[in-house]
Give the backbone structure.
Amino acid sequence: MVDQKHDGDGAGGGRATVARIYDYLLGGKQNFPADREAARQLLQVVPDAANVALSNRLFLRRVVRVLAEAGITQFLDLGSGIPTQGNVHEIAQAINPATRVLYVDIDPVAVVASNEILMGSPGCRAIEGDFTRPTQIVGALDDSDLATVIDLDQPTALLYCSVLQQVPDEQIDAVIAPIRDRLAPGSAMVISHLSTTVTEAYGATGVAKAKNVYRTQAATEIIPRTSDQLAALFGDLTLLPPGLVSLTHWRAELSEPDPYAIAGTSSPMLGGVATR
């Protein structure tokens, strides 16, 4: 995950970020007191928030495995967040060592931590960038040495994992279209996103309280969307089976058990992979 604002971030009592809240929920160490306090507030209203985060991470790992095994050797992870065990490059390069990965995140803490991990991983880099400004990302890929990492004229996996729910409805198409529509034949786009079914799971009051934690602690609005709204984001790409489904049910046999599957329920997040 990644948040769109990080003014005042830092260990000295600054604002929390969505990326570092997510890191804390996954048991990571790249977080500060403000992030831990925000996570604790979130867990008070959504007790299984850590399961939401883990389910999303497991989905990401399964997706990368499927796409790497299909022959894709370029991965562009937008809003990549704080690195944790089982990163995109680790999974993809275990299948094909020649795979190249570019992580893009607005949080400088995430970028520094990622590049430390990427030392010794040829063809992989992390850069600071805002995924809500796609023309800048495309420009950087076209006009700099980043083209040696990601060449958009070649098949590429574009990853939007648990980030688009931070984009207002009136901006969502402008955020996605410039890179989605640039993808070459043989490419794929991945989305995981909080669904409106979250209200069924936690009630309108619980959802409102959780959204308020992100709003007040991380200056970020969280916007759940319906399956129809999310399906439209794939444009003219073709969804791979099993389609756009709860993360719990997207090829679950390819990873360790999803925490919701163990509990006999479903993640309130939807995910899908579409190809060109």
